[in-house]
Design brief:
Radius of gyration: 21 Å
Helix content: 25-40%
Number of strands: 17
Strand order of the largest sheet: 5-4-13-14-15-12-16
Shape: globular
Length: 369
């Protein structure tokens, strides 16, 4: 019942084809809390517009090399609080008699050919097909063929007594924070002139002590002249960034989805909107295909992400330089289109050649040979 699981069931209940299917949702938690924030960009209205908490036409990118407030039209940057997302989908689910929700902890999955055995801490269920978003294996962390970085972060929702924030601009990446040998940036989402989410984020191999993240957020606020504020909420997370082929864990009747299925964008950690696209394709696929292990295929963007991670893993301190060149030399709407994996080959070439080509050529040579 994370984002990908709820997206999938929402699309299923929106299609009469699945009305005669018995669907069980299993999660150890009752989904009624603001446990995370999802942000994404899209053109025009989307299916989640009723529950977005804020949207912006302008983003800020900051670094020592390049800083700018950038209009991103025709895109808009949008954010959703998880509690609103859960409530929206669960309200739609409760109207469907063919759906059951169980609060149990998943232990294991076994594809026995004609049926899948789903073991929880309370009982064993049998299913025709299983779509799993729980990471049940750790091999990707220990293998060496595909580098693994983590997008890890701690966020503070702060409220000030007086107007302190530019409500019209979301800070997409601010690399002016000390890099300390890593790729580190601040991410800021203002929801009113007195309320904003400040998220200290790293793309690196190792996590920090929680106090280190919070010290950096406090320092960033002070640098912005914000000293009087209340911390309303906190959130934290860690998302694996890797081209490891999670697809190998799928079987005819078990499909891993979301982060557990490798649906996270390896080069950025963005998952929400790419999961939506995968789910839309998956619901169509299920109508005509029985073997779900064959769903999805490797695209050219997988190779781009692989080389990017190869470079960033080897030289983790140059992330600020790479992203600065990307935003300085390209139209931002094209960058967002590229990160959404919708660009043409000619657009790909223009964007990829704006990066330090020698580093990427070296990474390519190493991969080939």
């Amino acid at each position: 019942m994370g984002a990908s699981g709820l997206m999938l069931v929402y699309h299923m209940i929106s299609d009469p084809y699945f009305d005669n299917k018995q669907i069980v949702l299993i999660d150890q938690e009752i989904k009624n809390q603001n446990d995370r924030t999802w942000s994404f960009w899209e053109i025009g209205d989307g299916i989640w517009d009723k529950i977005i908490s804020k949207k912006w036409n302008t983003i800020y990118f900051g670094s020592e090399d390049f800083s700018a407030h950038i209009k991103i039209l025709p895109y808009q940057y949008k954010t959703i609080r998880s509690k609103d997302f859960y409530s929206f989908v669960l309200k739609a689910i409760t109207a469907k008699p063919n759906i059951t929700i169980l609060n149990e902890q998943l232990i294991s999955l076994t594809d026995e050919g004609s049926v899948v055995k789903v073991e929880t801490n309370q009982q064993v269920h049998l299913a025709d097909k299983v779509f799993n978003s729980v990471v049940l294996f750790s091999e990707y962390k220990h293998q060496k063929y595909y580098p693994v970085l983590n997008q890890h972060f701690v966020g503070w929702f702060v409220k000030t007594e007086k107007p302190s924030f530019d409500l019209e601009t979301a800070t997409f990446m601010d690399f002016t924070v000390a890099q300390k040998g890593n790729t580190r940036f601040m991410y800021v989402l203002p929801t009113s002139e007195t309320e904003a989410l400040f998220e200290y984020t790293l793309f690196s191999e190792d996590l920090l002590e929680e106090q280190e993240y919070e010290t950096e957020i406090k320092q960033y606020l002070e640098d912005k002249g914000i000293t009087q504020y209340e911390i309303v909420e906190k959130e934290k997370g860690c998302i694996p960034m890797t081209c490891y082929e999670f697809k190998k864990k799928n079987s005819k009747n078990i499909l891993h989805i979301g982060t557990a299925g490798g649906w996270t964008k390896p080069s950025t950690g963005f998952t929400f909107n790419l999961s939506l696209k995968k789910v839309q394709k998956l619901t169509k696929y299920l109508k005509t295909n029985d073997d779900i292990s064959k769903f999805g295929r490797r695209t050219k963007f997988w190779y781009y992400d692989l080389l990017f991670l190869d470079v960033l893993y080897k030289e983790n301190e140059i992330g600020s330089t790479l992203f600065s060149r990307l935003f300085r030399k390209n139209d931002t709407a094209k960058i967002l289109k590229f990160l959404d994996e919708e660009t043409t080959l000619l657009e790909d070439i223009k964007i990829t050649t704006s990066l330090p080509w020698r580093r990427f050529l070296k990474a390519l040579f190493k991969r080939v040979f």
